Amino acid sequence: MMETFLAFLEKLDTQLFDEGIIQALFAVAIIVALALLANYISGRICRRLDQKYQERRLSFGFLRQVIKFTILGLAIVGILYQVKPFRSMTTSLLAGSGIAAVFLGIASQEAMSNMVSGLLLATNRPFVTGDRISLSAEGLTGFVEEVTLRHTVLRTFNNTRVIVPNSKINTSILENYSYGDGNACNFLDVSVGYGADLDRAMAIIRRVAETHPLCMDRRNDIEKAAELPKVAVKAVGFTPYGCDLRGIVWTRDAGEGYDCLCDCRVRIKQQFDAAGIPWPRSTTVVQRGEGQQ
CATH 3.30.70.100 in the chain, residues? Predict the structure, then answer.
C-alpha cells in the first residue's frame, strides 16, 4: 500500500511539475524573493521622491500602489506558471489580455479617463486633502475630503458631499484657496448714505477690523515704516442710495475670515448707530401736477 501511495505521489509530481516539486518550490521561492525585493526598492524610491518634491506638492503614493499591484500580479502569474495545469491557462490569459484590453478600453473609455486623470492628480497634486477649492465652470466650492482612483469628494459649506469625476477636475480651471500660505484676503463691504461723513465711517470700519483678534497684519517693514494701516478701507463705488466702502481684512484661512467679517458687521452696525452715520435708504420723489392737492 505504501508503494502504491509513493507511486501515486511520483506520478502526481510528474504531472504537475516539469522538474519535480522541489525544483518548483525553489522557483517559487525565487519569485517571492524577487517580488519582495522589487516592492522594497520601489517603496524606498517613492518615499524619497515624496520627501524631495514635498514643497512642490507632488505625491508618489498613488504611483506606489500601482507598482505594488503590478509586482503582485506578475508574482502570481509566475507562481501559477510553475504548475502544469495552470500553465496553459496563464499563457492564454497573457495572450488574450491584449485583445481584452482593447475591448475593455472601448467599452469603458470614461472609466479609463477617470483613472488616468486620478493618476495625474495624484502625481501633479494641484490640491491635497483639506484644501478649499473652487471649480468655476461647475459652480462648485468645497473642501477636498478624499481623492480616489475614479472621483474626488468635496465637502461643501452645507456639509454635503459632492462626487466629482477626476476627468472633470483634470480638464477644469481650478482655484485653490489653500495653495501657498493659505491666508485669505476678505472683503468687508459696507454701504453708507450720501449724508454720511466718509472719513469717520472709514475710520470706524478700520478700527473695528484692526482690533479683531482674527485679523492678521500682512504689512511688510516698508509699509509699517510708512505707517500704512493694517486694514485698508476704500470707497469702491456709488449706488442710487449711497456710497460703497470696502475694508481689506486678512485672516489665516477662509473659515476664520467668515467669522471675522460676521463679528465686524455687528460692531460696525452698533458704532455707526452710536455715531449717527446714516445707512443707505431708498427714496421716492413724487411730483404733483398743476391743480392737484
Answer: 184-275
Which fold does the domain 184-275 belong to in CATH? Alpha-Beta Plaits (3.30.70)
What distance in Å separates the CA atoms of residue 184 and residue 258, rounded to the nearest whole number?
10
Q: What is the pLDDT of residues 87-136, one digit of tens each?
A: 666 666 655 555 555 555 554 566 667 667 776 776 677 887 888 888 88
Question: Taking the domain 127-176, which CATH number applies?
Answer: 2.30.30.60
Q: According to DSSP H, which parts of 1-58 are helical?
A: 2-16, 21-52
How far does the chain reach from its first CA to its final CA, in angstroms? 131
Cβ atoms within 10 Å of 119's Cβ, excluding its own = 16
Give the pLDDT mean for 43-64: 64
CA distances for 110 relative to 117, 121, 168, 247, angstroms: 10, 16, 10, 46
Q: Mean pLDDT highest for which of 38-42, 64-68, 289-293?
A: 38-42
